[in-house]
Design a protein that fits this description.
about 180 residues, 9-stranded mixed β-sheet, globular
Length: about 180
């Protein structure tokens, strides 16, 4: 059995494929994971917002140009209730079931919620393995997460997508095999 960190955190610039990578890597392990991913809403080539989705198929509008806010982040109104009513309960249930926790993404909009920040911190320091994607740009809260012990940080770029995807799959296989 290979030795690997308890937490694996993928970081990269917006649009580098973090969500795609996590959805594809997690596919074979869906019954052993719990958590959420954030999917873009597009109209043509224009990004209109984001939906939070669980691996069990639930979804909820999280951010949109059409939402008034507050809060607002850049051009998006953000519905923090989506985190409180969907993402946090999903993570709590996964922790109780001792599953691998998946959080895509711990980004600028998500960290507007104090409740979500607390849950993220608890998950990363708790006993369950965590696979997460996180903003690349420096920010005090996310920087503190990247520096946690037992946390491996992997930089995703378009040119290393296949290599990072294989690393994530190996990490997941190691966690499932325990």
């Amino acid at each position: 059995m290979s030795v690997s960190s308890k937490n694996l955190v993928v970081t990269g610039n917006p649009g580098c494929g973090k969500t795609t990578l996590i959805r594809e890597a997690v596919g074979p392990f869906r019954d052993r994971v719990g958590g959420f991913f954030t999917e873009e809403i597009r109209r043509g080539s224009q990004r209109m917002g984001f939906v939070l989705k669980t691996f069990q198929g639930q979804g909820r509008l999280f951010a949109s140009k059409a939402l008034p806010g507050p809060p607002r982040f850049n051009k998006y109104g953000v519905d923090l209730k989506a985190l409180r009513e969907l993402a946090i309960p999903e993570l709590e249930e996964a922790r109780r079931g001792e599953k691998i926790l998946v959080m895509d993404e711990i980004g600028s909009m998500e960290i507007l919620s104090a409740e979500f920040r607390k849950m993220v911190w608890e998950c990363l320091q708790g006993p369950c393995p965590v696979l997460a994607s996180i903003r690349l740009r420096s920010q005090p809260f996310t920087d503190s997460l990247k520096a946690l012990p037992q946390t491996e940080l992997v930089l995703l770029e378009r040119k290393n997508f296949a290599l990072v995807k294989e690393r994530v799959r190996q990490w997941l296989q190691d966690k499932v095999g325990r």
